[in-house]
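Quick one, tokens below:
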């Protein structure tokens, strides 16, 4: 990849905050320092069946902040919070968004859950009147990416857009991803943060785990459980030198961030805090600082005994004899645990602490218990202190850890380690065509795996075909004692990852080296089977009857956690949920982490399943064809869903050669872009899509003439197909470029389709063979001179692209094995 990565300070120039203590930054900060509580009786959600009745709930939210969104839909509550916070952050940063290239302004938001209350509204209609008559609007508004989409539409942005969902570490991880986008030069400004809401699904799930305190939580002292909260934080991030040139003062600087995996348990943290220690050390290394430089820690501090003890153990391991002199506090004691927003809100509060030289407190403390600790827990009210360097910790289900390091003055910029090339050394495939070898053979033979659905009844639906995974032999890849803990998506992800590790010759990777091996996981719809089971329990039995064994698998990153446990990978991990584009985003992020020297080996894993409910939703939205999909054809009538999983092992060229690995090809470049249009509206000119492709080629050091094949979405939806054809024709030489699409072979496998196409593209680069486009009899006029048949010269690059609902685009360029 040609993007230049430079370790330099990133300035926070604006902060917007919406939380139970207030709906503005200053209102919330004053309440924090005064030691006030935003926890009270729950009003918006019926919790009468639960063992608790309190939470941190946001009040006085102004709906006018979304008036200019223009998507024709009533804004969801999450979008309202994000837009309110973004508006405040932009004002403080004195940011005139229109003065920037819109393709250079990005968005990175963390969130833990879909708007499950809206999903329930839709399913209640289905139960009463059936799929065909149900109003689909609640489903459209329930998407986890809806707040990010609203922000892009509201501001007219077209830069990279990421939605991060590694449970309660999502907000901090979204900030880290934004920092990388700035340091690599992929963006000049990123609006980064997180949002989550009070939802009965999650509240009932935590109650089923007996993890909720009936009183306001008491982190680090009483530690009898969490209090659930909601809120949003958005920060304006830009390179420190750019903020200085705009003459805008920095509130604080993001000097580094660190990701790690415990590889320990689905819900319980490593009791020794070893994963947390690794995340902190990475963040400090990026910042060019040591543990002795840390003046304050904004802790994860959930209030559960296991989490508080693990974090205390991590503090002792990090600071040793100095531990009693490093103040720590938990903002969750005042606002509750805001799930995917927690890391972003914590970072916003920590930045204010650095700016005002004031330590936020932990309230609700049991002073008798506090006296027995060897930690400096800031109690009751804020206290003045010298805060030059502070840490913000976020630890999550699945053993995902994130630490963000903030400073009051910019650390000196420095060159990153010499950039190494990034290569693919292994693949794992689960698809309607089978595993990797059968998948490749079927593509070459022109055999489709799309057929009549067998997994569930389809009499209620127009579309009765899909690309289902019918072979269950992959379950043999998973330890029989462990497989019982996994839901469908967990089984897919764990099996395909082990296949990939074996294909890459990495199963013998020494245990000590697995600290530098990690997982980026992608999914479009997440664990829909598990979410359906939770819904069934809530509706059929009541909120107090949720099975505690099911709930941990309902978070988006549960599958990533299972992969890390199975393969004992303790390096960077996060989960991306950017719809159908997420799979390529995961590969891009994994490659960047390797290129930046943050890992030696990364797995980019994607998985999506099909259930009757998911198929019914797509069918009701009118997006599915009645027969096989026909990409780019005048007779196309929609797409066909597919289930699938794919894993790609990427590592540095030097690491691959040192261990004598077989190299399948090189990741040359990638890019992302957004389309600031209402949901459901498609720009048939393909301008934003073309820009994404062009930026990916530039990043790869290629031009359109150097690309022999393009693997596209090819959905079979006419408006989307026209947009894609116009985009490809705008950047590639039509007479020399061969188009391919795998959706007629495996169905539209959502986030997994892009990575499956990367597997096929690597084969095309090596052999010149490109699968025929099935069902393409009468091409759309926009296809022009673009070819759909015949071989291509081997050794030339291939371009793979994906698009998601809400106008999110991703593209990756792969090339031949380096000489």
């Amino acid at each position: 990849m040609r993007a230049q990565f430079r370790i330099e300070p990133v300035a926070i120039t604006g902060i917007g905050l919406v939380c139970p203590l207030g709906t503005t930054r200053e209102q919330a900060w004053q309440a924090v320092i005064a030691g006030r509580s935003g926890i009270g009786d729950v009003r918006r959600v019926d919790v009468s069946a639960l063992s608790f009745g309190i939470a941190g709930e946001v009040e006085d939210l102004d709906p006018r902040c979304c008036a200019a969104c223009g998507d024709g839909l009533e804004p969801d509550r999450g979008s309202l919070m994000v837009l309110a916070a973004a508006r405040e952050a932009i004002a403080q940063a004195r940011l005139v968004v229109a003065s920037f290239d819109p393709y250079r302004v990005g968005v990175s938001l963390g969130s833990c859950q879909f708007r499950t209350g809206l999903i329930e509204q839709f399913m209640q209609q289905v139960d009463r009147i059936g799929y065909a008559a149900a109003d689909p609007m609640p489903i459209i508004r329930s998407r986890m990416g809806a707040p990010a989409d609203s922000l892009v539409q509201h501001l007219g942005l077209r830069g990279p857009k990421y939605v991060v969902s590694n449970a309660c570490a999502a907000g901090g991880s979204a900030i880290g991803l934004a920092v990388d986008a700035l340091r690599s030069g992929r963006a000049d400004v990123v609006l980064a943060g997180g949002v989550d809401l009070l939802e009965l699904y999650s509240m009932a799930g935590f109650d089923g785990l007996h993890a909720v305190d009936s009183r306001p939580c008491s982190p680090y002292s009483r530690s009898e459980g969490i209090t659930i909260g909601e809120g949003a934080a958005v920060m304006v991030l830009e390179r420190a030198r750019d903020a200085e040139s705009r003459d805008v003062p920095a509130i604080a600087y993001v000097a580094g961030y660190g990701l790690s995996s415990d590889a320990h348990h689905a819900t319980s943290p490593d009791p020794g805090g070893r994963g947390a220690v690794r995340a902190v050390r990475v963040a400090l290394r990026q910042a060019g600082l040591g543990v002795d430089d840390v003046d304050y820690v904004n802790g994860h501090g959930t209030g559960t005994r296991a989490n508080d003890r693990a974090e205390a153990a991590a503090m002792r391991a990090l600071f040793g004899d100095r531990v009693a002199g490093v103040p720590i506090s938990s903002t969750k004691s005042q606002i509750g645990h805001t799930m995917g927003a927690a890391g972003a809100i914590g970072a916003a509060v920590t930045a204010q602490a650095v700016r005002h030289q004031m330590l936020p407190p932990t309230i609700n403390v049991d002073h008798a218990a506090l006296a027995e600790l060897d930690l400096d827990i800031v109690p009751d009210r804020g206290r003045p202190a010298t805060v030059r360097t502070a840490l913000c910790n976020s630890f999550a289900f699945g053993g995902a850890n994130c630490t963000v390091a903030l400073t009051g003055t910019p650390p000196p910029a420095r060159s990153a380690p010499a950039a190494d090339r990034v290569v693919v050394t292994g693949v794992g495939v689960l698809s309607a065509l089978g595993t990797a070898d059968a998948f490749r053979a079927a593509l070459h033979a022109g055999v489709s795996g799309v057929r009549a659905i067998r997994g569930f009844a389809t009499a209620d639906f127009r579309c009765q075909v899909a690309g289902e995974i019918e072979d269950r032999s992959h379950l043999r890849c998973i330890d029989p004692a462990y497989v019982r803990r996994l839901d469908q998506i967990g089984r897919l992800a764990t099996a395909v990852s082990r296949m990939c590790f074996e294909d890459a010759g990495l199963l013998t990777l020494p245990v000590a080296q697995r600290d530098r091996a990690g997982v980026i996981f992608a999914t479009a719809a997440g664990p829909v089977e598990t979410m359906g089971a939770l819904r069934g329990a809530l509706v059929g039995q009541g909120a107090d009857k949720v099975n505690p064994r099911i709930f941990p698998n309902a978070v988006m990153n549960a599958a990533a956690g299972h992969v890390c446990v199975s393969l004992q990978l303790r390096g960077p991990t996060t989960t991306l949920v950017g719809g159908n584009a997420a799979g390529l985003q995961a590969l891009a992020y994994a490659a960047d982490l390797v290129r930046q020297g943050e890992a030696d080996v990364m797995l980019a894993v994607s998985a999506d399943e099909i259930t009757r409910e998911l198929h019914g939703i797509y069918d009701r939205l009118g997006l599915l064809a009645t027969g096989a999909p026909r990409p780019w054809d005048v007779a196309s009538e929609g797409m066909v869903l597919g289930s699938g999983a794919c894993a790609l092992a990427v590592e540095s060229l030097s690491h691959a050669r040192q261990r004598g690995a077989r190299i399948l090809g090189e990741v040359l470049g990638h890019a992302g872009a957004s389309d600031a249009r209402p949901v459901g509206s498609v720009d048939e000119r393909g301008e934003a899509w073309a820009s994404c492709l062009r930026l990916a080629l530039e990043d790869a050091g290629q031009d359109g003439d150097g690309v022999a094949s393009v693997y596209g979405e090819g959905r079979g939806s006419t408006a989307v197909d026209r947009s894609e054809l116009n985009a490809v024709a705008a950047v590639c030489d039509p007479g020399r470029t061969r188009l391919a699409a795998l959706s007629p072979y495996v169905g539209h496998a959502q986030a997994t389709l892009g990575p499956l196409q990367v597997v096929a593209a690597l084969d095309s680069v090596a052999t010149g063979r490109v699968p025929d486009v099935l069902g393409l009899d009468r091409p759309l006029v926009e296809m022009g001179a673009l070819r759909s048949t015949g071989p291509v010269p081997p050794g030339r690059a291939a371009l793979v692209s994906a698009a998601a609902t809400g106008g999110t685009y991703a593209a990756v360029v792969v090339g031949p094995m380096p000489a």
